[in-house]
Design brief:
The chain is α+β, with helices and mostly antiparallel strands. The chain has a single domain (2-97), classed as Ubiquitin-like (UB roll) (Roll), CATH 3.10.20. Helix content is 16%, strand content 36%. The protein has 3 helices and 8 strands; from the N terminus they run H-E-E-H-E-E-E-E-E-E-H. The strands form 3 sheets. Strands 2-1-6-5 form a 4-stranded mixed β-sheet, covered by helices on one side.
Length: 127
Amino acid sequence: MMKTLLSALKFDENGLICTIAQDYKTGRVLMVAWANQDAVQKTVETGLAHYYSRSRNKLWCKGEESGHLQKVKEIRTDCDGDTLLLQIEQVGGIACHTGRESCFYQVWQENQWVAKDPVIKNPADIY
């Protein structure tokens, strides 16, 4: 089954696939990250979202440091097989390293970016 799952996906020249984490109840996009084949395999095996950190050059489980795990409810791919959509339950309600629900908290208004979503928890108290 894993071979079939992975062979249906199109990883880029760096072996990565764009992965969107979406709240399974509200539909809100919480974050976008990258996954390699190992991350996809770990996600399927454990039921927890795993990604590949380009900056740290390593596999990581979302929430391994903060405790804000992502429990995967469903995995989808787009029509081209080059993007994954993880419908998840966000443990603790925080997906962003800034302490917010979503990484998409800024809105373009009157020629500037404005932070619209509140900080749920100070990042200094998380990490």
